Amino acid sequence: MHTLTTPSLALPTDLLTRYQHIRQWSEKLCQPLQTEDYVVQPVAFVSPPKWNLAHVSWFFETFVLKPNLPGYQEFNPDFGFFFNSYYESVGQRTLRAHRGNMSRPTTEEVYAYRHYIDSQMLKLLGETTLEAQALAVVELGIQHEQQHQELLLTDLKYILAHNPLFPVYQAGGAAWASAPPTLPAANFLEVGEGLYQMGYKGQDFCFDNEKGVHRVFLPAFRIADRLVSNAEYLEFMAEGGYHDFRHWLSAGWNWVQENKIASPLYWHQQEGEWYQYTLAGLQKVEPQAPVTHISLYEADAYAAWRGKRLPTEFEWEAACQQFNPVVPEAACFLENETYAPRPESRPALFYGNVWQWTNSAYLPYPHYQKAPGALGEYNGKFMMNQMVLRGGSCITPRSHIRATYRNFFHPEERWQFTGIRLAEYC
Amino acid sequence: MHTLTTPSLALPTDLLTRYQHIRQWSEKLCQPLQTEDYVVQPVAFVSPPKWNLAHVSWFFETFVLKPNLPGYQEFNPDFGFFFNSYYESVGQRTLRAHRGNMSRPTTEEVYAYRHYIDSQMLKLLGETTLEAQALAVVELGIQHEQQHQELLLTDLKYILAHNPLFPVYQAGGAAWASAPPTLPAANFLEVGEGLYQMGYKGQDFCFDNEKGVHRVFLPAFRIADRLVSNAEYLEFMAEGGYHDFRHWLSAGWNWVQENKIASPLYWHQQEGEWYQYTLAGLQKVEPQAPVTHISLYEADAYAAWRGKRLPTEFEWEAACQQFNPVVPEAACFLENETYAPRPESRPALFYGNVWQWTNSAYLPYPHYQKAPGALGEYNGKFMMNQMVLRGGSCITPRSHIRATYRNFFHPEERWQFTGIRLAEYC
Amino acid sequence: MHTLTTPSLALPTDLLTRYQHIRQWSEKLCQPLQTEDYVVQPVAFVSPPKWNLAHVSWFFETFVLKPNLPGYQEFNPDFGFFFNSYYESVGQRTLRAHRGNMSRPTTEEVYAYRHYIDSQMLKLLGETTLEAQALAVVELGIQHEQQHQELLLTDLKYILAHNPLFPVYQAGGAAWASAPPTLPAANFLEVGEGLYQMGYKGQDFCFDNEKGVHRVFLPAFRIADRLVSNAEYLEFMAEGGYHDFRHWLSAGWNWVQENKIASPLYWHQQEGEWYQYTLAGLQKVEPQAPVTHISLYEADAYAAWRGKRLPTEFEWEAACQQFNPVVPEAACFLENETYAPRPESRPALFYGNVWQWTNSAYLPYPHYQKAPGALGEYNGKFMMNQMVLRGGSCITPRSHIRATYRNFFHPEERWQFTGIRLAEYC
Amino acid sequence: MHTLTTPSLALPTDLLTRYQHIRQWSEKLCQPLQTEDYVVQPVAFVSPPKWNLAHVSWFFETFVLKPNLPGYQEFNPDFGFFFNSYYESVGQRTLRAHRGNMSRPTTEEVYAYRHYIDSQMLKLLGETTLEAQALAVVELGIQHEQQHQELLLTDLKYILAHNPLFPVYQAGGAAWASAPPTLPAANFLEVGEGLYQMGYKGQDFCFDNEKGVHRVFLPAFRIADRLVSNAEYLEFMAEGGYHDFRHWLSAGWNWVQENKIASPLYWHQQEGEWYQYTLAGLQKVEPQAPVTHISLYEADAYAAWRGKRLPTEFEWEAACQQFNPVVPEAACFLENETYAPRPESRPALFYGNVWQWTNSAYLPYPHYQKAPGALGEYNGKFMMNQMVLRGGSCITPRSHIRATYRNFFHPEERWQFTGIRLAEYC
């Protein structure tokens, strides 16, 4: 949760513009969908698109409109039950795995819900004066909706990828048609031993898990100036990487065996050639593009096989401070609308394309404090059994990312755009 | 599978009329649905409505059009994979539990598929002369679609009943508003000891599992002249029926314990009052109406508690020969459009309202023969671990039922309209 | 449960002799065991041998000694919890799957328990005069212990067979060393159409599920004069029987796929040769011996592949009445101490060697009545989802079997000595 | 794995004496067992005692005797399959969950195996001169056997605790009979901000996961001078700690709900009083003794409820450097033979009694290197999804523990003697 006194926060009118802009992006992302695509949930960790669209609206209704807009009338009192994600404080909710069993409310009703919320938010932000704390929650709601834009696309990709028709979300040319035939070998950039400051110290929005600026001592290390490519990952596969336990963590090896894993998610081999499902349909694996949709176990095994390792989240942040003090323009994010990682256009680009697994467990920073009340459930309660990812992906909104941003998933999860940057000690 | 030489089969033009009539009924039953209702599959044994609509069309395409219509072009070669149910002979298919993960083909595409099949069937039945064997498969396809009309409604009921909004399929008055305040006690009708002929011996359509007329010796018995009512079943519940192992089969008692069963499916207790979800929404349990949506385990436990038993399928058929030699007009079927069982309007009505569990395992009759080829998979391979039900329900098409009709489900299944008729030995 | 007034029951002294004889057999069967063999339970349906030994004693303690021996002191009040099998009426009990987790009571304590029970039974049977009903329960206890002798050996076989050392229970020569090199083809014996009397009508002990003499009408049929041999079953395997869905019931085919079944239980292929674990260790499959340790699904698929079928339990009993009016001396039972089926020594031997799957569901006979009280749980509550087997096996005590004896297991179970006798209609 | 060149390692004769001493302790710990206790495995993570006894011998056979003793003859070539734990490099092995299904080799054979290994080790250590690297592996084998002494007791406790008879391992008075009636409140000892050196830097044995001395920057913090007691934990329970999601990590809350957790492992409530199973049988919960057999989730929830937190492993090690520069004599270890934690006899005792959960994930130290070959599987491959524990418990051998020792378990595991020491930031 973000800071509750943020003096430099944009004025309400600016906030309103940003609110409307972000809300429109969510709907724009759904334009290619058929009504049926909004409904299904092939696996518990994937939510139906209509659930994502409604849940972000429920967030504004519950945490902004109900406490702040006098006389606010709920759109439908049942919706809390449907669209609460995990806030125990806010009452009962649909079991996560049952979201895809709910044909009602319909997609049309969900859009009506969104537009009702938008009209009420317009009233709130346009006609009333909010306290800083309430403004902060609006900001959190906007950031939250941006997070769900990313989830909406990864969930949708999972849905369409598991349909034997391999439907196309956005047709058309891969942006990398003119990629050079071979990538130069990665360089390993050196970062010296020392005490580094970690965590967010700016004045703008950040999540509570980034707060608590603190020092971390790092020994000297080197970090790759680019992501691992598909071509490099195919070498690992060709040399039997998935069949040699020596490269794997014990839990990873069990996962490979039990799930018969032999390639990244969404890869299919047809007549000796590797294809991957993308939001542009089934396409040949592009050798120059970064490998993606891999678990931490695969990232770690790949690194072990190369005689390298994954960086820690602190090494990544220190390297970023040195080599990418601002987010480079060249980085590939949601707004590029490629919806797939593309070959890197320049070296030492630490952002975008794919989230980078680190070998850091997702744990609290010193002096970490949960917010009081339901919003205290936003981040802190997930700090166990997950690993940190850094850098953002090709479907992360550009305004959403920064050097201190800590994403986190379980080590076996693959449906996000995840990838590998290698490191080693000096 | 029905007999392959059926001289009295209606002429092609009549068959065409019946074909069109049945096909239209399927679509009529879907008129109250929202697009989203067509998609979901809350549990493996329930199919999405769009799957049901497409599967019956695939049956005509695969078993009628492809072998008989010269130059027939498949609507979409991928559809076989999606819409094959269980015919191993006809190739690979979607795993049953994954039907609800498929947003594509869309409902609109499924309707286009239906209409394409209809146009081709019109050409086939209107313009060509079919051999008796091909006509028999058309007839089987019609009967098959009637079976799926019943499944479509039971599946839809399961889908809507598991939505917390309890959506209404068909609003409006329960047909039994004028039911008498109390039912007279059931009479037990006597049937004498003797050899009875079982199985279908007419000239019209029947399924292969009814064929093989044979004699069965029955000791004298008595059978109730009406179904067990909700009021009677509530007595069983009130006396702790669900909590006393002595009434239950061992497998039934395990099922009750593991699933915490304490009432029929779709029943909810609110402030001391019992409600049940019906296709008209959540309604008070009607005491006079037959109890329904119960497993064989519940039926058997109820009977044991009453000091009675379930009839065998042969006793039921013998009683029917004696008391209902033709299907009575008063029986409640799909065409009554009540979509719920209603209090019985007269005694000794052996048909309609709810399927009656028998204590007969679903096993082959003497001289049973599977049809050759894929249609041999229609019935025979399911003859294990299932129990026979007789009589048809309030959503069975009237023209589909007869005294020899053998329905079958596993003893724990409850989403069909299932009920109880008691019996005892003399 | 047997009849409660059995005038011809042996006098107490005779009963005592039989009691002692049977009890000694149970212990004799355990002589080859190591202490550790008494403890383990590799799968829920297998009980540790020490559990079997104690449970049969608990039966005498609970149903005979406590109600009938004045001043009887329980050996240990905790033992009821450990050694009750499934009698809900008699209180709480160890979960079946946890029997193998109990290192205490030790084997030595279990033997002490047995000997205490024996001393008390000696007092009861030797010094008191029992009512007919109590005598009947003693008889039931003896029959019950005989059933558990068979279970003890099948459970032990399962335990040892799953140990990579393949320990030997009883070493030494297969009894069939001199079997002829090839078996003559089976003859199919004809049994005429007619009404047959089924069920037990003698004066001696029988189980409640055999009672209720009743008539069954059978069409004419033929039944094989011998069991299916391993050589014949190997033909089925060689012709791809396990890989062709057309031979299989739907539930059977799912079972084959999910469990990757490709041979009878306990078979291992080494360098192209088939071996089977026997109580004499791992041995080559003997072609002439009856195939055993197969599920009903395999029996049914084999029959379908041969163009035959399994008999019903009534056909088997009618054939027995005709061809084996008394149990032949040549039949192979427990007392032969082969502990494995052997090639049949003469044709038309309907008993012994392996239990024969029938295509009859285990359901009550007309007028079936459960006994009152806990012993009413002996049989009746299991009458669902199981199939009947007839004839007894090489480890069934000879005095335990008769023409009307109905054994029953679930169709997928294989750890009993189960086999195949074919039938067909005339 | 320890360093491969350890010049100060004891001479072979000393090593032999230590070898024999440790080996005898393992057998001494088993003296109270019945043969049956050696066999059972109530849950996959618990190994049968005979497996533990044999596995540590297999370790010496595989990694010491086979490579180093010329002409060494394996005791039994099958034993590798039985007694390999997780070394993929060393070939196939029994599935972990099946260890308890193996009645053979018997306990007697396992002891014969041990004594054979001992005789061969005597020959090796007494008669040959080993290279430093081989000596290091002997040392590792000794340390490994000490680890398994602790596991043997925790596994045995789990086995006996799940037996309704609650068998006594070692009878007799709790050592804390004279504990003071109330404990003074814990003091929080302050440790200043700064760079601390972590990891093992001595000359003696340590595990590979402790190597790599490195600096860690710590903010100032306070750490409790004693463990959380049962009395304090009972307050948490009394105030509904197990029923209030706000104290719990999300994964912890799911674990509580799914497993219906409402007290530490081995606790039973009888007539309002709490009892716990101990190796001395079922006893009243001693209020002054440290709470034990809790998961990290419980430890974390307790700390959150108190407004404190768990220390990191680095904070623990820094505090230990300051307050317990050597392991205090007063600490309670295996050699005290209490087999249960006892009330702390003095403040600021960081060692013994119960392992202390830290909020540090088990991850590699900088420059961590796995050993080459099979022994590289000793530690490194487990560095995922586990949390670090520090300090040793009442059943840890005293010579086995040190400030840098990193134990690790999954956050839900409770069968080790685990407990809580609180911390907070200054």
What would a concise description of this structure say?
Chain A is an alpha+beta fold and 426 residues long. In chain A, 32% of the residues lie in helices and 12% in strands.
Q: Biggest protein-protein interface?
A: A-D, 35 and 35 residues
> Roughly how many Å is the radius of gyration of chain A?
22 Å
Point out poorly predicted stretches of chain A: 1-12
Strand order of the biggest β-sheet of chain A:
10-9-8-11
Average pLDDT score of chain A: 93
How widely separated are the two ends of chain A?
37 Å
Q: Structural class from helices and strands of chain A?
A: alpha+beta
Number of helices, counting only DSSP H or I runs of 4 residues or more of chain A: 9
Helix content of chain A: 25-40%
Order of helices and strands of chain A: HHHHHEEEEHHEEEHHEEEEE
Number of strands of chain A: 12
Beta-strand percent range of chain A: 5-15%
Largest sheet of chain A: 4 strands, mixed
Quaternary structure state of the chains depicted: homotetramer
**Shape by Cα distribution of chain A:** globular
